[in-house]
Amino acid sequence: MDNKSVLLENNIPLDSEFLNLSREDFELLPREEKILDVEFKGESVSYAKDVWRRFLRSPITVVSAAIIAIIVLMGIVGPYLSGFTAFEQRWDLGRLPPRWPGFEHLGIFDGSTVREIQAANLPNWEPVLIRVVEEFEVVTSRGPVPMLRIRIDAYAHAAVQHAANIEQGLTPDPTDMYFLFGTDQLGRCLFSRLWQGTRVSLILGFSAVLINLAIGMIMGSAMGYYGGKFDMIAQRIMEVIVNIPFLPLCLILIMLLGSGMQTLIIIFLINGWIPVANNVRIQFYRFKNREYVLASRTMGASDKRVMFRHILPNAIGTTITFVALSVPTVIMTEAFLAYLGLGIEAPNPSIGVLLRNGQENLLTYPFMMLFPGIVIVLLMLAFNLLGNGLRDAFNPALRK
Amino acid sequence: MLKYTLQRLLAAIITFFVAMLVIFILINMLPIDLMQHLVDLGPPQGGEAAAGWTSAVTQHTVDTIMERFGWDQPLPVQFYRMIINYLQFDFGISLVVRNNVPVVDVMATHLPVTMQLNFISIFFILPVGVFFGVTTALTKDSIYDHTASTFVVLFIAAPGFVIAALLQYFIAFRLGWFPILLAPEETLNWTRLHSMILPILAVSFGPIAHMARVMRAELTEAITSDYMLLARAKGQSYKQAIIHHAFRNASVPMVGTFMFLFIGILWGSLVVEVIFNIPGISRVIITSMQVNDIQLTLAILYFYVAISLLASIAFDLTLGIVDPRIRMGGKKDGQ
To answer: B304–A384: do the CB atoms touch at under 8 Å?
Structure first.
């Protein structure tokens, strides 16, 4: 053994009898106290974190969210990108096809359009002609007439046609202009108009849904928490509102208030809050008698605190899903009304108004419908997929 | 069952009455007064002095017209009279859209066209939607299922009018397989039917996709349930068990989906009518609203309220037949 003395904390030497302990001096004892200072091995996962993880696990949902983010971003900055405003009219430059810088010789988005002319008139078209597509004949009362289907540069054509106005400075020279999505019949830039319309549609969708959310949450909370007579009366009222068909209600409100942003929001407010209220109400019935609520109330929490701090968060998942699934419904309903001529009033476009305008020119100028169509389908698809993804993400039963 | 039916009918009648009242009040809140407008135009010079002026409207004429239509009465009396008239199948007269033609006749010319489109669509949607739902459910996770499900998601998202425009441009205009607009034939012959195919497709794609999705979800759930195992255990073949047990249980939510879609079709066909230039009720609705043809507007609105309510009654009753638990008054969960 080592003869060196072992020192304790205060430089007191340890008794020698402790230095030479044999194995027999030790005995096994049961542990009586818990060891409290050991950290958990696993990471603790909060609900929000869990939802976020499940959200990221589904690529479709993430892509949908990204698409929505891009469209929203374009709705904010899009109208300022092309250099043309959404409202400025150029009467001589109406219905110009899309033309993108760098695409001039690619055969698509090159600002060209197809015309059918008599073969004899071809020399007149020479300055703007790109190529002859097809030769054919039309039989008239004076016998067959040879015809040509030619592809022309619509921008150069407009410049030639309105040369007088351009010289006087009444119309800008279109030769070097690039309308990315073309122009409408009044010569307004459809690129700016599309993003302006997206902005209007999104503002309408989000404001209608958020107001619905607020009303639905307050009504649902009150009904669920207080129950009794108030709940019963509110339920009956809701039943009647749900049963009044939406279309006639829509039409009559538009008759009464005129079509416009406010009217449309009011229309969506009439029955839009009911699903939220129902959902929140059910959550309240489920949770208001739980022990944790009782505990909170025992500690003196006010009704308001119990309702909004302790019970309402249970409904947060379904509510966010509701938002994601309702916004596209509102946008689509607005587009539907626009098709019937009852949408947002001019000059402000919405996606629906643009679609209707495109529909009127569909067979001759299909590009007018193309881009709003793509945007609305993307919006619908992205919101629907995002909504479904969120529903799965918020559902703890699907936790892996 | 009888009690259940009566309850539902009573509730529907009350709702209908409330809706009628609300619509009536709202219509009468409109800031228009056709008659006063006519009086303000007035005789050109010096009132009664210009009696020879035929197109001028005097106060006397206005009073006569007001009395003729009962518009001089207070609103409750007007409402009461309207109800009485409606009960005698007198729905008033269209004053602006079609001058002095009974509302019934206006509706009778345009409604059948719309209904034709709707009903053919429904008979097309139901089997096709169920077919895709069942086949995708039975071949779950196969390539066929994934392809079909992708299209289902796409068609649920794409609005009907975008699909209609695509069909119209590519299939009718570019390929020329179908007419671009509806044929103006009166009877339902081949030309007419041929030109109706695209509108019907345009109306149907969305509902078919919805139906296929619900059917697939319900049937996949039903197939994996315990009662299917029991059915197999008692000796039924897989096919029998699917038809007798899984399919029947899966159809219960389909009833709800179908009624929901029916209302959607009523709506959707309005837009498709605009696109394909179909002389249905859609244009009547829009013009009658624009020119404030009150009696016609009221009748059309009431018609749509009635048809929606009838659909919802039919839905409840069908549900009662398909699912015995409902008519026996089972308790709802979470209430």
So the answer is: no
State how far residue A225 is from chain B, nearest Cα, in angstroms: 13
The per-residue DSSP string of A28-42 comes to -----S----PPPSS
Q: Do A247 and B267 touch (CB under 8 A)?
A: yes
Contact yes or no for A287/A306 (Cβ under 8 A): no
Average pLDDT (B250-266) is: 80
Q: What is the mean pLDDT of chain A?
A: 83
Chain B, nearest residue to A238 by Cα: B15
This prediction's pTM: 0.80
Do the chains contact at A377 and B158, CB–CB below 8 Å? Answer: yes
Q: Which residue has the tokens 């004899």?
A: A120
Selected residues 244-273 of chain A with any CB under 8 Å from a CB in chain B: 244-245, 247-248, 251-256
Encoding tokens for residue B272?
A: 């498709």
Chain B CB contacts of A380 under 8 Å are: 157-159
Dist. CA A200–CA A379, nearest whole Å: 14
Q: What is the C-alpha to C-alpha distance for residues B46 and B59, in angstroms, rounded to an integer?
A: 14
Residue B211: closest CA among B138, B172, B260, B281: B260
Whether cis (ω within 30° of 0) applies to the bond prior to A347 is yes
pLDDT of residue A65: 92
- DSSP-assigned letters across all residues of B297-335: HHHHHHHHHHHHHHHHHHHHHHHHHH-HHHHTTPPPTT-
| Pick from B27, B157, B282: CB nearest A252 | B27
ipTM of this predicted complex? 0.78
**Mind listing the pLDDT tens digit for each residue in B106-125?**
888 888 888 888 888 888 89
Number of residues assigned to chain B: 335
Secondary structure letter of residue A96 according to DSSP: P
**DSSP assignment string, A365-400:** -THHHHHHHHHHHHHHHHHHHHHHHHHHHH-GGG--
**Pick from B23, B157, B282: CB nearest A380:** B157
B102 to each of A17, A138, B288, how far by Cα in Å?
Answer: 121, 48, 14
Question: d(Cα B190, Cα B196) in Å, to the nearest integer?
Answer: 10
Chain A residues close to B23, C-beta within 8 Å: 248, 252
Question: If we measure between CA atoms, which residue out of A324, A292, A315 comes closest to residue A221?
Answer: A315
Closest CB to B334: pick one of A282, A355, A384: A282
Give the bridge partners for B101, in sequence order.
Answer: B94
B33 three-state secondary structure: coil
